[in-house]
Amino acid sequence: MKVITDNSIKNDQLLKARVRRACQILEEVVGSKSDSVTADWSVADDGTGFRLVYATITDSSGNRAETHFQPNELANEDLIYAKFYKKWGDLLQQQSHKLLDLLMDKN
Fold first, then answer.
1. φ and ψ of 69, to 5 deg
2. Coil, strand, or helix at residue 52?
3. SS3 14
4. Which residues are within 8 A (CB) of 58 and not within 5 positions of it... i.e. 6 or more apart?
5. Span 7-59, pLDDT tens digits
């Protein structure tokens, strides 16, 4: 899996370690398709003064799904698994809709 992290994550050792573990979880969720997935991590203010960590997952077809975490949520592996299973399911659904559209166009 290709991983992209912004500097605010690279410069925060605790956050960097948590994102690294979250990436390992994402690889488990994605399974054998992990070589064709990119995880892009960034940090942004949520508008109320709190930082959020965003994970954008992109597959080889260009399908994208995004989720976010409060920094302390990255210590909760059950939550990470749940969010990534949901987002990976969303990506698979996008893929299946595109394939279905192609099949329908050919008929």
1. -135, 145
2. strand
3. helix
4. 37, 38, 40, 64
5. 999 999 999 999 999 999 999 999 988 899 999 999 998 888 889 999 999 98
Q: Which two tokens stand for residue 24?
A: 């390992």
User: Which domain covers residue 31, as residue numbers?
Assistant: 2-106
Distance of alpha carbon 43 from the chain centroid? 13
Identify whether the C-beta of residue 73 lies closer than 8 Å to the C-beta of residue 79. Answer: yes
pTM strictly above 0.85 = yes
Tell me how many domains the chain contains. 1
Tell me the angle at which helices 77-106 and 13-30 cross, rounded to the nearest 10 degrees. 40
Band (pLDDT 50/70/90 cuts) for residue 95 is: confident
